[in-house]
Amino acid sequence: MTRFPDVPNKLQLHQLNGRLSSQLQSDAARLAQRSSRVQSLSGFIGGRPASNTPLVSFADVVIKFKPRNGSIEPQELHCTNELASCNRQCEHLYGTDTVDLEEPCKLAVASHFVDGPACFPASAFLQDRSRGTISIADVRVGDEVAQSQCGFTEVVALLHVDTYNTHIYIEVSHACGKLYISPQHFLRLRSHRAPVHDSAISVCQNRCAGKAANRRDKWIWSRACDMRPGDELQDGKGETRTVHSLRRVCLVGAYAPLTQSGEILVDGVLCSCFAPPRHVAVPHELCHAAMLPLRVLYCMKTAMEQLSRFPGFTKPIFTVDALWLLPKGKNKTLHPWPAGLLFIFSKYLAFIKRCKKSTSFI
């Protein structure tokens, strides 16, 4: 006998319809609630007052520069106030004309963002006692690198390590090759013209080396930006190298190893380890004296590690490292000690400037 499914009666249909209606009403209420939240959020965002803070972390800047070709009008680069972004904008806008537009654009960008010493680019080379010719980017604390006739000197710290940013350097073409050095860096120089020095440098040199050190035809520590064609550089053997030409270029990286002697041989030319900013008018000798705590700390660390080396251990048990006591500056590429000294000196100059202004109104 065939059975047919039970047909719901009117009561069951009414109950089912009620459940469906209540479910639809519940879903409609939830959707209305979500819609109300979205409208409230939209109204809150739309009704907020405009903020003075830009949506990005860098404000827009305009950098003006002159192309190398005099027939081309001066250009304006609009970019965010960030070095890498402006360099990419130079490549995007002027990449088809590298000589006349792209390179001057990057030079102007580097000039806009330069705020401290740059020292030597990653393309510079040193002479290491054990590894031979190495890139300055591969130098580590404890390496022994070439200096003047005295032979080799130990690297006690890395004052500046900037791997990615682009900086302005002076390309020095001399009798035996080229040297790339930042404009504010000290190097051993002899000029046959009347030299121009910072007042503080001249005073210190008069006290330390006599007045003859400031005369022409004498070897002195001079900034690279004061160099001119015809001046003479000194190599590791004490021989002279005449400067033929100078020009400014943009190169990647900035490295500044600190040695025990304060001197270093870069691309065969005797240079200083120091490149203080122009407004910090201090000579090479004073910079070397200011780094005495780092040299003492390195000697203490070396002695402690040698005394705590025991058989069966690959590393020393004890070491000395007090750099954590130093404050961390905004520029993470600078060593904390020189960064702190520059910060203190800048505050001192600002204080002196305010004092002069206050006394001028009296």
Report on this model:
The chain is α+β, with helices and mostly antiparallel strands. It has 2 domains: 60-113, no CATH class; 125-347, Endonuclease - Pi-scei, Chain A, domain 1 (Beta Complex), CATH 2.170.16. The protein is built from 7 helices and 13 strands. Helix 2 (83-94) packs antiparallel against helix 3 (98-113). The longest helix has 38 residues, at 10-47. It is extended, with a radius of gyration of 33 Å.
What are the key terms here?
362 residues, 7-stranded antiparallel β-sheet, two-stranded antiparallel sheet, 7 helices, 13 strands
**Largest sheet entry:** 7 strands, antiparallel
Order of helices and strands: HEEHHEEEEEEHEEEEEHHH
Report how far apart the termini are: 122 Å
Low-pLDDT parts are 40-58, 196-215
* Overall domain count: 2
